[in-house]
Design goal:
By secondary structure, the protein is mainly α. 71% of the residues lie in helices and 0% in strands. This is RNase III domain-containing protein. Pfam families: Ribonuclease_3.
């Protein structure tokens, strides 16, 4: 499953940010999650620290919403295409975009 890779999570986060679907509180959680220290792993070497940190911030937001507002989590996941039949198409589209422009995910410094 490619969606568990930090590059895919980074792309999902960018979609939420570009579409302006996050509240200020959710953006605060992203900033908090982004600032968690990451170790020098193979993942950070492959994708870059910025991509890894943004992916970690999305994971933090998902965990936060899972614990505090499951309905909001489900809403955001649907916006990202995680519903019956839609998630496979979204994942395939993101993978194709990443293959065409892998450097795009490494150059952005936004959360």
């Amino acid at each position: 499953m490619k969606v568990v890779r930090c590059e895919a999570q980074d792309a999902l986060l960018k979609k939420l940010l570009e579409d302006d679907h996050l509240t200020e509180e959710e953006r605060d959680v992203l900033r908090w999650g982004k600032n968690i220290t990451s170790s020098k792993t193979r993942t950070t070497k492959r994708a870059g620290v910025a991509v890894y940190n943004r992916a970690s911030s999305l994971e933090t937001l998902i965990g936060y919403l899972y614990l505090t507002n499951l309905q909001r989590l489900e809403e955001l996941m649907r916006r990202l295409g995680f519903s019956t039949g839609a998630s496979s198409e979204l994942i395939a589209e993101m993978h194709m975009n990443f293959q065409k422009h892998p450097s795009d995910t490494q150059n952005s410094d936004n959360p």
